[in-house]
Each structure stands twice: as structure tokens, then as C-alpha cells.
Design brief:
about 140 residues, alpha+beta, 2 domains, two-stranded antiparallel sheet
């Protein structure tokens, strides 16, 4: 009965040797595909790590860029301030920064103290004169 079964399969075109060879080829192809899959997974993991490293690098560059931009803005403000104080072709000006009236040891006498500030770029000594006018009451008596 088994021989009749095998004869029927043979007559239908089924060959055991052909099926074994086809199975062997499929197993070989399957093994190659699994190796390719493993290689591609490794490449994918490496690309993912590189992407994360690049992303972190971009974040750090952006932070540094922001810090540098704020530093440049502060330096520009400083430069503008100092240009206002010292310009190569500007006229030299002297202005009174502070003035104090200090009493002397002798009653009724006072000394004036001035703090002067020079703006511009001095090429030579600056000199000048000052006129002071004092207005007030002398020995005024207040009555309530």
C-alpha cells in the first residue's frame, strides 16, 4: 500500500530528491537573510547612537551660541558707552561731577571741593577758570 502511495506521488510529479534540494536551498537563503538582518540591526543601532550624539552636540552648540550672543550684546553696550566717553576726534569737555561745601576750622569760612570729569581724548593739559557766586543770608535770624 505504501508503494502505491509513493508511485502516485511520483506520477503526480513529486520527487523526494527535488524537495530535499529545495528545502536545503530555502534553509541556506533563510540563513543568509538572518545574517543580513543582524548586520542591518547593528548598523541601525550605530546610526541611532550617532543621531543621539549629534542631537546632544547640537543642543550644546545652541546653548553656547546663546551665551555668546548675550556676551556680544553686553560687549556692544560697553563699547557704545566707552565710545561716548572717549572718541578720537571729539572735543574735550570738563564737567562738574560733584561739589561739596566743607566748613573750615575758623567759623564762617568754608572751602569748596569740586570733582571734575574730563570726557573725550585728552591730547594736552586742560586748563580754565571758574566763577563762583554765593547767594544767601548772613546772620539771619528766624522768628517764629
Amino acid at each position: 500500500m505504501y508503494a502505491a502511495f509513493e508511485l502516485g506521488r511520483y506520477e503526480a510529479g513529486f520527487r523526494v530528491s527535488i524537495q530535499c534540494a529545495a528545502h536545503s536551498r530555502r534553509a541556506h537563503v533563510s540563513g543568509n537573510l538572518e545574517k543580513d538582518n543582524e548586520r542591518l540591526r547593528t548598523q541601525l543601532e550605530a546610526a541611532e547612537v550617532a543621531r543621539r550624539v549629534d542631537e546632544e552636540g547640537y543642543k550644546q552648540v545652541n546653548r553656547n551660541l546663546g551665551d555668546m550672543q548675550s556676551q556680544i550684546a553686553r560687549l556692544k553696550q560697553d563699547l557704545t558707552f566707552y565710545r561716548g566717553l572717549v572718541q578720537p576726534d571729539s572735543v574735550i569737555h570738563v564737567k562738574v561731577q560733584q561739589m561739596q561745601i566743607v566748613p573750615e576750622t575758623v567759623p564762617g569760612q568754608f572751602r569748596l571741593k569740586f570733582v571734575l570729569m574730563q570726557t573725550g581724548k585728552p591730547d594736552s593739559v586742560v586748563n580754565g577758570s571758574a566763577a563762583i557766586t554765593v547767594e544767601g543770608l548772613l546772620r539771619a535770624v528766624l522768628q517764629a
